[in-house]
Each structure stands twice: as C-alpha cells, then as structure tokens.
Amino acid sequence: MNGVLVVDKPAGCTSHDVVQRVRQVLRTRAVGHAGTLDPLATGVLIVAIGEATKLVAHLQSADKRYDVSIRLGVETDSLDVQGEVVRTCTVPELSEEQVLQALQPFIGLHPQQVPALSAVKVGGQPLHRRVRRGEQVEPPTREVQLFDARLIELGPDRLVLSLHCGKGYFVRSFARDLTAALGTCGHVIELRRTASGAFDQSQSVDLEALTPALAEARLVSLSEACAGLSKVQLTSEGVDDARHGRLIVGDRILGSDWEVAAPDEALALFSEDGELIALGKRVERAVRVTRGFVSDR
C-alpha cells in the first residue's frame, strides 16, 4: 500500500500515537506523518504509507489552516488549556474593529518566539525537557508567515478565529502575542486543523474506525499526493535515466516549464502515462534525481 491517508486526529493523543495506530491496523512499519499536531489539537493529519514516506518532507512544508478558540484573561505555561496557570489579566471590552486592527501586524512575514514548552530543540534537546528540569532557556525566535486571519466569534472572554499560515507556525505563540496586543493575556482552549496543503477535513477518516479496507478505499495515490509540486513529464529515455539515477538532459524532458524552476524547488517526475517516477531538482539545463520511487506496475 503506497499513498497518503488524511486522518482526523482526535484530542488527547500525539501524532506519533496516530502513526502507531496506522502501523497496527495496516501491519506495516513504513508509516510517517507530515506536520505534528499537539495532543490538544484535532483535525487533519497527513499520514504517509509505503513509498509515500519519501514525500513527507514536502508534504509537511505545505501551508495549513486552523480554527482556534482563545480564552482571554488567563495565561498558562504551555499557552494552552493543558498547562498550569501562570497569571491572570483583566480583559478590556473589545470591539470587532479592535480585534481586526490588532490582527493586521501579524499578517505576512513576522518574527515569532516558539513556546517554551515545545518539541523545538535547543542545544540538541527538546525545549520542554530542559524547561521542566528547571533550566533557564531562551526559546528561539523564527520568521513565520500568516496569510490570512478571520474573526469568527468575539465574546467577553473568548475569541474564535480562522487562520491560514505557513510552515512552522505556532498557533499557541500567536494566541500569546495577539492577546498581548489586545491589552490582556490568553491561551488556546481548542485547536482544529482544517486543511494541510491540498488536503482538507472533508477527505479525512476517523482514526478509531480505520480498517485495512477503509484505508485502501480512502488512500490518496502517490501522483495525487504530489499535487503541490511542479510536475515534469519525461520521455521513455528520461524515465530510464531517472530509474538509474542518471542526470536527465533537456531533450528527455517534455515541455519547458521546468527550466524556470528554482534550483532548490522539488520537481515531481512522471512518465508519459502518468506514473510517478522520482523527485528531482533542476541543475542548469538538466534535472538531477533526488528520490526514486519503486514502480507499482
């Protein structure tokens, strides 16, 4: 079985727990996930099976969509409802206009400090381990991107928003920073991922209901899983070169769109009849194979 499953992750389990469950149901070790979800979070988790595990790095770099509920006036050490309360704040009376205005500086590229209780590694160790040992560690700040943020609901002590963000975005950090901009504090009480790249919750399967037959019926093919990558079609000679890891020269590549690809852009290499052959990158006037796929034909 080679392809992608869109799993609806339940609250209370880790992304690794989901992978373990899929391994048990399908009786294979060749399972990975793309884009970690905290135990609190629910929703779309991309699970790669078999040859699709070679696509994980590309699948997890796709943009994400979330619905998030934020409690105002209370901050926790983990920045979510599962943490210990570290302070309380007064909550000003907020209007929709004030919230929308506070959101504007977060749209686009901006620096974001990762949560202290996170799996991000500092000095080779996850931050949460070092913090819980009592070490004083400064969480790193990274540049992240928020494409869009919509206000869904505004209550006296609660905000509900819909977010569209890029890779590596911490919604918990966003909640901390937004509530500070609103003159208060806060933490995430509910978080649901509604989409990851080209995959959304309408395609998802219930983890507890998963069976081999359901997995096979809902499996997204390798070709479909590459929908977010630039597609390059090869001649039969080009396919042979790709299979043997040789440099693929221009006259064995159909079309010319690949010639404008950035040198670090991943290209999905297909045969003329639509079979996914390999992943590659442009090298001047040729394409170099970076990962090959075992033929399923």
Describe the structure.
The protein has 297 residues and is α+β, with helices and mostly antiparallel strands. It folds into three domains: 3-62 and 198-222, 2-Layer Sandwich (Pseudouridine synthase), CATH 3.30.2350; 64-193, Pseudouridine synthase (2-Layer Sandwich); 230-292, Roll (Archaeosine Trna-guanine Transglycosylase, Chain: A, domain 4). Helices cover 20% and strands 37% of the residues. The protein contains eight helices and 20 strands. The strands form four sheets. Strands 1, 2, 3, 4, 7, 10, 11, 12, 13 and 14 form a ten-stranded mixed β-sheet that branches. A six-stranded mixed β-sheet has the order 16-20-19-18-15-17. Strand 18 and strand 19 (276-283) form a beta hairpin. The longest helix has 12 residues, at 15-26. The protein is elongated, with a radius of gyration of 22 Å. The protein starts with a strand and ends in a 5-residue tail after the last strand. The model has no long low-confidence stretch (mean pLDDT 94).
